Write the structure tokens for this entry.
Amino acid sequence: MYKHVVITGGAGFVGSNLVHEMAKRYPEAELTVVDDFRSGSFKNLEGFKGDVIAGDLTQLDLKHYFGGRKVDLVFHLASITDTTDHDQLRQVRDNVESWRNLLDYFAGRKTRLVYASSAATYGIAAGVNKVDQEPKPANVYAFSKVQLDNLARRWARENPSQIVVGLRYFNVYGPREAHKGPASSMILQLAQQIRRGQAPRIFRNGEQIRDFVYVKDIVTCTILAARARTSGIYNAGSGVPRSFNDIVANLNRVLNTQWQPEYIDNPHAHYQPHTEADLTQTTRALRYTPKFTLEKGIDDYAASGFLV
């Protein structure tokens, strides 16, 4: 189906899982990874047999690498994903200008583009998040993702014969995220605390709920987005929010431990007590149905050997 696919951010968490799955599904396709390795890890690409371009995507000479070569599909996952990085110039420049560079180059080339937006664009409002909500970014990372969505909408209007799809990823967890350190999922961080013989620390009383979505479901959703018939922006989550107490209980189950949570005060004045992806439009347009409950996701994570 695809002859040449480019995956930016392919050494990162979701990106590397996508790379390996695409290689499995489309063994004859040429895969090219673009990554600057500031936040990704070469270890995530172990076994990858395609091409790797190391460079800053905000100023990468795309014509030099892809001129004269047809690219069927671009998955754009390269981004500063650390939401605690509050350097406004770095966040906006890196996240927005890399996307602008790709859109400018691939306009008119019949290339399909799928990019990672974020549920952070919804802001701190609690409850079910629907794609037609007005964005209310609470930090510069979320602001930068809103700009990606704005650019994508304008590009879609200007290039009606091409497809561009944005996916608002919710709380993704799973293999190949350990390199993210403090920015990794709470599921991994709590598992690491338990492995060190420490009580898992969560905010009082642990009943805050989040849309935790397993990376294999996210990869499936991302691949399905490449087949969309029209351009659009969609939620990518599990659709079923779960509590932090649920996480601790499931980690105790798979790690064969009996730790009770250590409840600590929440220092954040504005903290989301509830996030939940409304998947109505995603299911209708992309035929996406999550396969992993929290229990199945943590089981698979533990079986993978990456939950350490």
